[in-house]
Amino acid sequence: MLIRNTIVLGLALTLTGCLAHEGRYAPSCLAYAGSEIRLEGGQYVWTKFTDQVVVDELGNTVEPFPGFPRRGDYEKQGRQITLLGGEGEASETLALYRVDGAIYLYTAGEAAAFESTGERPACPLRLQAPEN
To answer: Fewer CB within 10 A of the end CB, N or C, for the chain?
Structure first.
């Protein structure tokens, strides 16, 4: 098992350096809340979604994700994608992986767990087919 995971991880790391990474990343499973990230021409748009509606004590709808959508520049270095934060926003570093022919965008925590154990995240962001 450890040998298989090491081989899979090695192949994933080797093949991610030259991935065609631009496009729309959305949850790879049925999700009622989560993120969507679009990468195109050095720019990103990061949106969050949920099916939950939160209301305040007056019955007004409350924005569930203040500060989103986020937009800005991103940098790619190897398999790392860094979403550059704007004024007052932190940068976010993500990692690209090709697994079973699909391209995924893992958070830093998901990438660290994958690299140490070889276990894939439950519902990472996956590059979606181009929309026509």
So the answer is: C
- Separation CA 112–CA 83 (nearest Å): 18
Q: What's the pLDDT tens digit per position in 92-109?
A: 999 999 999 999 999 999
Angle between helices 108-117 and 2-15 (to 10 degrees): 130
Cα separation, 123 vs 73, in Å, equals 25
| pLDDT of the residue at 85 | 83
Count Cβ neighbours within 10 Å for each residue of 73-87 and write b for 16 or more, e otherwise: ebeeeebebebeeee
CB neighbours of residue 120 within 10 Å: 18
Report residue 11 as tokens: 């192949």
- In three-state secondary structure terms, 59 is coil
Identity of residue 74: Y
